Known about the structure:
Layout: H1 10-28, H2 35-42, H3 46-52, H4 56-80, H5 85-101, H6 105-109, H7 117-142, H8 146-170, H9 175-190
Helix pairs in contact: 1-2, 1-4, 4-5, 4-7, 5-8, 5-9, 7-8, 8-9
Amino acid sequence: MREPRIRLSAPQRRTQLLAVAGRLFAEQGYHGLSMEQLADAAGVSKPVLYQHFPSKHQLYLALVNDATEELQSQVRKALEGTADNEARVHGAIAAYFDFVEDQRFALVFGTAQSSDDDVRRAIDSAFTRIADIVGRLIADDAGLSEEAANFLASGVRGLATEGARWWLEHREVDKDEAVALLSLLVWRGLGAFGPGPRRT
């Protein structure tokens, strides 16, 4: 569906272009979408599109960065929004499940472009930052070394990511139940280290 031509500020136009591109990439894949098709669908000229994104690769990378930054934001909000560690675990796991339902998830994991070096680096960098946040909390609460805490945080991140991806493909388990089950697994697992996760 083609969007009407309206005047927007540069930040508004960028946001609009990313929204349209995210939808079309999810529908058609990276190689199935041309910049000309995107410009037409967004209701802009190709020169306007190229002013914001010099290439399709740069546009795709911007979408991946936006998607992973949103995931980081939601995980950080869950971890920093309460002092109750069990609630932190549940909120962070829920953020991953919400993320896989977002159409942008396919941009990160569901296309051939996810193996592109630039895209892979952006994804790895984002997930490393998430693991760093989790690792600091584990180190503080369990009394572990930074290295040990970061190792556990990477495991928790992998569990959350793969669990959410499995649920998306199968859905035999209700989403809320899946989040609760995975959260309980992480919560009880972390409780085996040091004094255990703090609960208020």
